[in-house]
Amino acid sequence: MKILVTGGAGFIGSNFIHYWLGKHPDDNIINLDLLTYAGNLENLKEIEHLNNYEFVRGDICDRDLVNDLVKKVDLIVHFAAESHVDRSVFSPRKFVDTNIAGTHNLLEAARNTGGVRFHHISTDEVYGHLGPNDPPFNEKTPYAPRSPYSASKAASDMLVQVYFTTYKLPITISHCSNNYGRFQFPEKLIPLIITNLMLGKKIPLYGDGKQIRDWIHVDDHNRGVETIIEKGRIGDTYCLGGNNEVTNIDIARMILDIMGHDEDKIEHVADRPGHDVRYAIDFSKINKELNWEPKIDFQKGLREKIKWMIENEQWWRRIRSGEYQDYYKQQYG
Ligand code: NAD
Ligand code: TYD
Fold first, then answer.
1. Is 163 a catalytic residue?
2. 87, 130, 213, 218, best to mutate for ligand 2 pocket (most atoms within 8 Å of CB)
3. Is residue 200 within 8 Å of 237, Cβ to Cβ?
4. CATH topology for 2-332?
5. Which of 42, 108, 125, 226 is catalytic?
C-alpha cells in the first residue's frame, strides 16, 4: 500500500510513521509536512534513510502539490493541523486556513483522483466539554466546540462527512482524547512539566488545576487508527480514549513524585479563556465492533515518557534553542 501521511513530522504523525513502518515494512509512505514550529524532522531520524519513505516539505493548502501527491497513493492519513488551543486563542487565522481549507484541499484531491481512501484524525474537543457527572462523549454526542482550535476541527470533520454523503468518498474519522508519548512538542502539558522541572523552573497550572483530561498513550491511539483503516466501516466515526481521567493537578503531582520534587514547584497562573472543564470518552463502539481497547498503563507510560525525556535531553533542548529547524536544510539541502 502507498500512503500519504500529512503532518508526519509532528507529534502523533511521526509516531504513526514509526508505528506503521514497524508493522507494515513493505508499505510506502510519503510524509507531507510544512514544518511549522510544530514539525520536527529529528523525530524521523531512525527511518529517514528507508527507500520506502519520502519526505515532502509543503503546505496541505497547495492545490497543485496535493493533487500530484494524492495521485500516487491508495490511502491518506490526515494528521496535519494547527493543534495547540492556547495558540488558537491568540491567532485563530492559521487554524482556519490549515485545519479547514487544508482539509478541504485534500478532500478535493482525493475526489478528483477517483476516491482515494481517506482517514481523518479529529479530536474529542469537537464535542465541547463535560460537567463532573455528565456521561462521556460518544460518536452520537452533538458537536459543541468551544475554542477556535476545536471549532476549526469540527468544521473540517463536517467537510469530511459531507464528502462521504455527497461524493461517496471512502472516509473514516477518529476522535481521540489527549495523547502523551515521545516527540510531543514541549508546549503541551506533560512535556512542559517535565522540561520545566529539568530546567529548575516552576510548573504553570491554569486556574485551580482541577480540569480533567482523558490521557491515552500515542501508540494506543495509532493502533486504533490502524484498526479503523483495516477494519472500520466506510463513512463511520470512531471515538478512541484511554479510560484514564486525571485532573491536571494530579498529573503534576504524579510527575513531581516520579522526578523527586516537592509540590512547591506548582504555580497557579491565570486561567485559559473558555477553559474546557472535563473531557472523557466512551470508546465502546470501536471496542465492540473492531475489538480495540487501550493497553498501555498510564503510570507505566508516564514513567517511560519521563525516562525518554531525560535520555533525549538534546531533542527538547534543540527545540528550545530553535536548532531543530536547521535539520531540514542539513538533510535536504
Ligand atoms: P502537532 O502540532 O504536533 O503536529 C502537526 C504537524 O502538522 C506538524 O508537523 C506541522 O508542521 C504540520 N502542519 C501544520 N500545518 C500544516 C500545513 N498547512 N501543511 C502541512 N503540514 C502542516 O500535532 P499533533 O499533536 O501531532 O496532532 C496531530 C493531529 O491529531 C491533529 O489533527 C490534532 O487535531 C489531532 N489530535 C491531537 C491530540 C493530541 O493530544 N495531541 C488529540 C486528539 C487529536
Ligand atoms: P494541553 O496539553 O494544551 O492540551 P488541551 O488543551 O488540548 O487539552 O493542556 C492540557 C490541560 O493542561 C488543559 O486543561 C490546559 C492545562 N494546562 C495548564 O494548566 N498549564 C499549561 O501550561 C498548559 C500548556 C496546559
1. no
2. 213
3. no
4. Rossmann fold (3.40.50)
5. 125
124 is catalytic: yes
Average pLDDT over residues 42-53: 98
Where do the domains of the chain lie?
Answer: 2-332
Task: DSSP for 113-179, please give it.
Answer: TT--EEEEEEEGGGG----TTSPPB-TTSPP---SHHHHHHHHHHHHHHHHHHHH---EEEEEE-EE
Contacts of 306 (CB under 8 A, 6+ apart): 194, 255, 258, 259
Name, in order, each residue with C-beta under 8 angstroms of 95's C-beta and a sequence gap of 6 or more. Answer: 81, 82, 87, 88, 148, 149, 152
Q: Each residue of 228-238: pLDDT tens digit?
A: 999 999 999 99
Predicted structure pTM score: 0.98
Residue closest by Cα to atom 10 of ligand 2: 189
Q: Which of 51, 58, 52, 60 is nearest to 29 (CA)?
A: 52
Q: What ligand 2 atom has the least distance to the C-alpha of 205?
A: 19
C-beta neighbour count of 144 within 10 angstroms? 14
Under DSSP, the state recorded for 56 is E
Burial of 235 (0-12, 13-18, 19+ CB in 10 A): middle
What is the CA angle 14-136-134, rounded to 5?
A: 145
Residue 15 Cα: closest atom of ligand 1: 26
Which of 40, 69, 70, 79 for a ligand 1 pocket mutation test, highest count of atoms within 8 Å of Cβ? 79
pLDDT per position as a tens digit, 129-144? 999 999 999 999 999 9
* Distance in angstroms (rounded) separating the CA atoms of residues 181 and 11: 8
Q: Give residue 82 CA to ligand 1 midpoint distance, Å.
A: 6
- Contact between 278 and 212 under an 8 Å Cβ cutoff? The reply is yes
Cβ proximity of 302 and 189 under 8 Å:
no
User: Three cell numbers at 274?
Assistant: 473558555
Contact criterion met (CB below 8 Å) for 123 and 157: no
Q: Which residues contact 94 (CB under 8 A, 6 or more apart)?
A: 82, 87
Q: Buried (b) or exposed (e) across 271-292, using 16+ Cβ within 10 A?
A: eeeeebebbbbbbebbbeebeb
